[in-house]
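Board work, copied verbatim: Cation-transporting ATPase
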Amino acid sequence: MGEKYRKGHHAVLNKGEENEMEIFGYQTEGCRKTLCIAGYVFSCGILPLVFYWRPAWSVWANCVPCTLREADVILLRTTVTWIYLSSLNGSVSLTPDHPVIADEDYVINRAIIRPDLKVRCIQVQKIRYVWNNSEEQFQKVGCLEDGFTAAKIHLKFGSGLTREEQEIRRLICGPNAIDVEITPIWKLLIKEVLNPFYVFQLFSVCLWFSEDYKEYAVAIIIMSIISITLTVYDLREQSIKIHRLVESHNSILVTVCRRKAGIEALESRYLVPGDLLSLSGNKIQMPCDAILIDGGCVVNESMLTGESIPVIKTALPKVGDTVPWKLCGREDFRRHILFCGTEVLQTKSAGSGTVKAVVLQTGFNTAKGDLVRSILYPKPMNFRLYRDAVRFLMCLIGTATIGMVYTICVYVLSGEPAEEVVKKALDVITIVVPPALPAALTTGIIYAQRRLKNKGIFCISPQRVNICGQLNLICFDKTGTLTKDGLDLWGVVPSDKNGFQEVHSFTSGSTLPWGPLCGAMASCHSLIVLDGTIQGDPLDVKMFEATNWEIENSGIDFHVRGAPAGATIVKPSQATCQIPVEGIAILHQFPFSSVLQRMSVIVQELGGNRMAFMKGAPERVVSFCHPDTVPSNFASELQNYTIQGFRVIGLAYKRLEINHHITAWIREKVESDLTFLGLLILENCLKEETKPVLEELTSANIRTVMVTGDNLQTAVTVAKKSGMIAESLRVILIEANEADGSSPASVTWKLLEDRKHAGYRDQDSYINIGEDVSKPRDEEGSYHFAMTGKSYQVISQHFSSLLPKILMNATVFARMSPGQKSKLVEEFQKLDYFVGMCGDGANDCGALKMAHAGISLSEQEASVASPFTSKTPNIECVPHLIKEGRAALVTSFCMFKYMALYSMIQYIGVLLLYWKTNSLSNYQFLFQDLAITTIIGITMSLNAAYPKLVPYRPLGRLVSPPLLSSVFLNMLFSLAMHLLGFILVREQPWYSATDVFSACSLPKGNISRTATSPMISGKVSPDSFMSYENTTVWFLGTINCLIVALVFSKGKPFRQPIYTNYIFVLVLAVQMGTCIFLLFANIPDLYQRMDLACTPTLWRVYLVIMLAVNLILSLIVEEAIIENRALWLIIKRSFGFQSKSQYRKWQSVVASDQAWPPLNQTSYSERLESASGVSYSNPVFESHEETP
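↓ predict structure ↓
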């Protein structure tokens, strides 16, 4: 909308979030509503049907714009409703100044209109919003305010809510339920029947019945009923599946602490934000999102991450600062949240009480609710193919309009009755826009989906299959995707003041001698014992198993001096000898965070010293260590292992004073002045399928990018080993640093060399930097950029004008957080890349949802939001998906071309016959529509995908020169052939406009006794369509439909050759044989039934010659011009065509920039940001890509 919005008329819901939406205020006007009702009546129901398809039009017609404060209708289509607090008077006595509703800290209280005690609210996509009177905007309810500090959460909600507060919140926020009703069949049926496609079919069927064209009408009705039944069944099954996914969520019994009323058990649907939950026992299903404020928990978050790895949750600290609680600590705030749908495996109380948590979000606001909403309301796609299809249909409707005008003129001038004129004119629409067109276009997708299913790839968004055919950049996670899931402990490299010692290998079976390093391996983890089995991160499990220690929990019957109740105890096993300690108690954990890249524990030797251990990314660990304890050759030693593809973990420790209470130790204090212990070396091998798949993608000119949370050098090594980066190409490290005091943000380009060693530096990534000061001139693609998530973040914020140039050659992104992965995918999409994302589900969910085609290798619930899920846990699914996508896309184009030509062939033939006020008979139409086109539409799409990926993609647009040229030229050939046949038949010596038997002298014995007397006398009845023009046009049109089906059945390079589609070849042969039989057969009864006139054999030969010439011309044009990629490239160059794709433009910019990349240079943000950058912003699901 280009106009300026009236003040207060427009607002944005969920600003800055993924589900950001614009809303507009409207007020119903009585006069407009009356006019609309009159329109409903006088349009015979057409106007309400249009409003049903376009709800916004209904709002614009019935309402006038107004401020959101005055609005009773909001566009997004929803209605303002009122919540009256007076409904609570039976249980709560409320007055406008009641203290419960007087606290302005709560959005709920600011939404109450006094003195009426009512609340305006709207509901959008299952989320309720209330009108905030003080800020004059709609705000989400069903969650605690983000602005609360941690101290205020403990103060306000640490004792629970009163009964009055619960009742008010329950009324305004709604129930804590993720209600997904099983949609009634009648609703699904009505919604499907009112689809514009079926409404058009209903119009066509009614017209055909009025013309006694019953057979095809019945056939269309049967096909429509089958289609509607299958669709409704499928939608019903999906509805039941989603309902079952959330059904158990709404009926969990929970324990709630009420202020002044003690503990109470109630159903989870009655929970409200701010309620205080009491958690005890094991294996508790969380019915809401809650902030842990007392005690700790071990949680299975596989529903969110896709990995069944226990996660440690810690209590929100009672800090008294003024910042919001999500920002109060250095660690990720999610460490304090128990998410809805996850399972609490164990609870650990801080003292003698129970674990307590404050309800943060309820219903569809929760993590599980958000997942369900992403399924119910998927992100809309804006694939150009579908918009082009609508435009093409509009062109066909325009063509039909011309034909209608022509028909009306011809029939009115011929003196035909008005009813006949209207019927013939409306007939033109059903001919030009065939009702079977949408169904024919989806057959390729359906067959591709079935083939993908046979290969173990499941799709929940069928329309994205076509988009897969356009993918030209694939992002891969590393661990579990390119490399194997399991880690093998290769060895440990101890460190002391003198440097690194000899590698201790675990392959020989020897145990590590006792010392701080052994203690770190035994205790610095988040493992738990569940049902007698040690569970946790695979890395932690491998590390702990190498020590030969045992793990157990202390409890009431387990008393160990110095160990508090509930602490985890690790002890040497009986097989381990010469260990001078009885065991180690893990007193407190600072859990691992992918943002912080480390974890720490506070432990105490049973009866001995108290210590802190840290483990994490080596470069992060050493930054907390005293420099004197870090070996001088740290960087070279680290690179020595990472360059071989090992996964390296750093270990450190410090001694703590034993007289301090555990709670007195804050993370910053514990994680300082540590002593570096050494490096843990784990082997993570490439999957066997990785290298061949990446080579296949590279040979197909499909770009591959690695996006991982692992070490940068390890990622670069894996990229080289897998073939993502050729060994001969150079890797340039981009390092960017945030502004620091007076220094602005900076970015540096350095050549990453494999053979040179650099000294230890305190930086995020320890790599060897080549000192090659000469500035080489790189050809395009002869170098690759690598960077960390930290550098990517700085570049995005301070060097946005450089980002597109960097992304042109950026291949390795290491230490990337989940949010950064999603943002990176979006940035590639802004450059008009069609982006695929392949991950194992852990931390990849956001990127999988953001990509054009997300492929999850995990079968956990997290994959529900991913369009594609592979049962085979390797990347072989990626080329399979691209091949099937290309085949489906080409099939859609072939079907579109065929259906367009079939309708135009019929259109040309009918308009020629209309000139003589004649037409095709019902049986002639039936033969073309049902026996020819319908069967071809079903079988033409059966070609399987071509087994080899070629280095270019199929066209992504319907409105493109090659496709339009193909349709236009073939239409010209058909028009020329029909005109030639129509004119020549009238010039034949045997032609007669009145006697259709003048051409053949049939013996009367050959005429059936049931034949009508007019036929025997050489005349036809007035209602008969039999004529020489009709016979000529029908044979030419029918066989021409078979010709274009053969010509358009494109095989290589995206589909298997036509001869491999045995069913289609058989169908085409049978149809062609039938047509030739009809052409040369002299069977009076059959000819009479089909309204065909007998013609001399020579004329039939002429028809075959015309059809053969048409076939040859069509094949030559299709193969020599339309499918000649080299020719189109020459034409493009000749006309100076420039691609509109942003990445093509940036490739040209990079290629012409002699100073790029600026090796061994540092740039600062002030200079760069003042420079004029090129703007590049396009919708995520739209591409301007034009490929030949």
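The chain has five domains: 10-141, 185-248, 384-456+881-993+1025-1123, 473-483+687-754+783-871, 488-683.
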